[in-house]
């Protein structure tokens, strides 16, 4: 198995969830698995099709985590708004 194929195997697509905690746990596991492959890499030629698949998976993770960051920011802003509303004098 080539180095890129090992990276593809270590890089599943992100889980279909809106749970930020679940995404973080899955992302950390992927990063650890990928780092183990990278640490063991020897200079190998890369197959263009494998590189394209790896790029697609990396892009999927980047988009998924960016969306989670936006959702989390919105949730934090909502909590701040609720706190401010609750602190208003009546």
Structural notes for this entry:
By secondary structure, this protein is mostly helical. It has one domain (3-87). The protein contains 3 helices and no strands. α1 runs parallel beside α3 (48-87) and α2 (20-39) runs antiparallel to α3 (48-87). The chain is elongated and about 70 Å long. The mean pLDDT is 86.
Quick structural overview:
This protein is an all-alpha fold and 90 residues long. Helices cover 74% and strands 0% of the residues.
Strand runs, count: 0
Strand content range = under 5%
Order of helices and strands: HHH
Helix content: over 70%
Distance between the termini: 68 Å
Largest sheet: none
The DSSP helix count reads 3
Low-confidence spans: pLDDT under 50, at least 5 residues? none
Mean pLDDT score: 86
Instruction: Count the domains.
Output: 1
Over the alpha carbons, how many angstroms does the gyration radius reach?
19 Å
How would the global form be characterised? elongated
């Amino acid at each position: 198995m080539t180095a890129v194929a090992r990276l593809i195997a270590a890089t599943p697509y992100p889980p279909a969830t809106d749970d930020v905690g679940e995404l973080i746990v899955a992302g950390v596991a992927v990063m650890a698995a990928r780092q183990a492959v990278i640490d063991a890499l020897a200079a190998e030629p890369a197959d263009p099709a494998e590189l394209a698949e790896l790029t697609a998976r990396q892009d999927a993770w980047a988009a998924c985590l960016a969306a989670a960051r936006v959702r989390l920011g919105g949730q934090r802003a909502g909590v701040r708004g609720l706190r401010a509303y609750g602190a208003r004098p009546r």
